[in-house]
Amino acid sequence: MDKRILYRKAYRMLDDITPLKIDCGLLCKSRCCRGDSNMGMVMFPGEYGVFSEKQEFLRTRRENMNGSEVLFGTCTGRCDRKYRPLSCRIYPLVPVFDARGNLTVIMDPRARYTCPLVSGSLGLKISPMFKRRVCRIFKLLCGDSDIKKHISVLTSVIESYRKFTGD
Ligand code: SF4
Ligand code: SF4
What we know:
The protein is built from six helices and five strands. By secondary structure, it is an alpha+beta fold. The protein has one domain (3-165). The strands form two sheets. It has a three-stranded antiparallel β-sheet. A two-stranded antiparallel ribbon has the order 4-5. The model has no long low-confidence stretch (mean pLDDT 91).
């Protein structure tokens, strides 16, 4: 299936659901949107093609991530929510393959120092319904071999991070 169709479907499936029932950005002043141009969010393969026209808020750069070339998006801390990348929509969750090779969705350990939902500093837990929805979306997206490969790369990045931090 055309990747653009897959991503648009994923975006739609996330339209009515967020990590908490309330806007968590109000609790932390949207810390995950306050990166600088050295940071950014990884774009999924072909995701940039979803945008029919250039989105001014989004800059991109190519980077090598564990041997694979990926596109990173950076923004100015404001965006048209309609066009925000998938990584932003699912944050602080990330899809990975577990030790048995099954697709799962976990809290991104790299978000611990940014996101209170990962650190637990506000005593709030991410909505299980949100997690289930994100998992369903990636089961759908995994039907695409490029996206599946990208999730394998993400898995190796998370594993390396855990080894480095001892998590
Ligand atoms: S950092 Fe975490 S709590 Fe804050 S807006 Fe982002 S996802 Fe929500
Ligand atoms: S694109 Fe939007 S949601 Fe994503 S980091 Fe930037 S401001 Fe936040």
